[in-house]
Design brief:
CATH topology of the largest domain: Spore Coat Polysaccharide Biosynthesis Protein SpsA, Chain A
Number of helices: 16
Order of helices and strands: HEHEHEHEEHEHEHHEHHHHHHHH
Shape: globular
């Protein structure tokens, strides 16, 4: 029995180390700013249905609608539709006052963005005017003026699904919001940009997404989990459609400012992600083995993320047991990976964040956020654990947004 435990512990060490090392190696490609060269945008050609998902967003939606009206794109080539999902406030009237389509939906049984999207797309296909593509934002967002120009370019290049750069609208509201900002700066550069540079699929982020209309009609939406972005990413890759990355198109997203609201949001993410992993990991793994395409394998690793969060904590625990205690001298089961490798792995994990901030030229006051950032990261452990154990809970909780900021405040122009 003791020998079996030793084998299990050693195997666990190897798996933890290997998975973490894999992610670090993939992220190295993020040190290159962009794979594609800078070029002048093509003439606007594609038409867009711009969908704004909203649930009781009267405090924040007006600046977005003003922002969308002023995009650098011919007005006749896009229309804005606000999905007023079970709204009991003035969201619909504000949308109508701004001259956009206020699409009111009331369905208490099928709540959440995934269901709202499915409902809206069904009505969009029934309209006389059909669009080349569908763009999705959340009501609390702001958008760079070149957004549709960048999406126009990607569609002309033949891409069918595009994810934009997700920036934080309110990074300095609290230590929680700046922790989100640091996380997303890292994701944008060392996850999304890195995978784009490797030629692999990027992952959808729930907002700032662009879909070719023909693709949506072919596949259907059918992404109604708590994390519709994760689900649709998996469905695309199963169909050999790889989302691409548009780092010059920016969407500014409001982040929670309290730890409690952050935990609620991230618990919903982990429940949805775990549910998607349960349904899509095995088919994608079999597809990866059959096709021998690395992009499929990487998609499996993406779905593995809830477990990986636990692995990061396990790395800390393993490092502590090996480096700070004499436990291994008694049990001889913590020596599979040498001390220097654990030290290097932990250094690589944490140094990436300030390095990304330097490369992205973030303001110096953002570095103060690194002091409490490890606390924010550690909270992922109980959130992930609860999410894994309660993934069947499909209750959708709305994140309240209050920061009514205009795009001029974000860009200075």
């Amino acid at each position: 029995m003791n020998q079996v435990l030793v084998w299990l512990a050693n195997g666990f060490q190897v798996v933890i180390f290997s998975v973490t090392l894999y992610q670090i190696l993939i992220s190295l490609a993020g040190f290159r700013k962009q794979k594609d060269g800078v070029r002048a945008p093509r003439a606007p050609r594609k038409s867009f249905a711009v969908l704004v998902a909203a649930h009781n967003e009267e405090k924040v939606i007006a600046p977005l609608l003003e922002n969308l009206r002023a995009l650098d794109y011919p007005k006749e080539l896009y229309e804005v539709f606000v999905i007023c999902d079970n709204c009991t406030d003035r969201t619909a009237s504000i949308a109508a006052r701004h001259g956009v389509h206020a699409m009111e939906r009331f369905d208490e049984a099928r709540r959440g963005k995934g269901y709202a999207m499915e409902w809206m797309l069904a009505r969009l296909w029934e309209r006389e005017r059909q669009f080349d593509a569908v763009v999705v934002f959340d009501a609390d967002n702001l958008v760079s003026r070149n957004f549709l120009l960048e999406m126009n370019d990607k569609l002309i290049d033949g891409h069918r699904v595009v994810q934009s750069y997700v920036e934080t609208k309110n990074p300095f509201d609290s230590w929680v919001s700046v922790s989100y900002a640091i996380t997303y700066w890292f994701i944008n550069r060392m996850w999304q940009q890195a995978r784009h540079n490797w030629g692999m699929a990027t992952t959808l982020a729930g907002t700032g997404m662009c879909f070719e209309a023909t693709l949506l009609k072919e596949l259907g939406w059918n992404a109604t989990s708590l994390t519709e972005d994760v689900e649709f990413t998996a469905r695309c890759i199963r169909a050999d459609i790889f989302p691409t990355w548009a780092n010059r198109a920016i969407v500014y997203d409001e982040k929670p400012i309290t730890l409690l609201s952050s935990c609620r949001q991230r618990l919903r993410w982990m429940r949805g992600h775990t549910d998607c992993a349960r349904r899509y990991m095995k088919p994608l793994l079999l597809q990866a083995l059959r096709t021998r395409r690395f992009a499929h394998f990487d998609a499996v690793m993406y779905l593995f993320q809830p477990i990986r969060f636990l692995f990061v904590v396990a790395v800390w625990v393993m490092s502590y047991l090996q480096l700070a205690t004499p436990l291994y001298t008694q049990f001889a089961l913590l020596r599979t990976v040498p001390d220097w490798a654990w030290i290097a792995l932990n250094a690589a994990l944490f140094l990436q964040f300030p390095l990304v901030m330097l490369m992205e030229r973030r303001p110096w006051k953002a570095y103060w956020g690194l002091i409490l950032f490890p606390v924010f990261q550690f909270t992922w452990f109980p959130i992930t654990l609860v999410g894994l154990l309660t993934y069947k809970n499909k209750a959708w909780n709305h994140t309240v947004h209050t920061r009514s900021i205009r795009i001029e405040e974000m860009t200075g122009s």
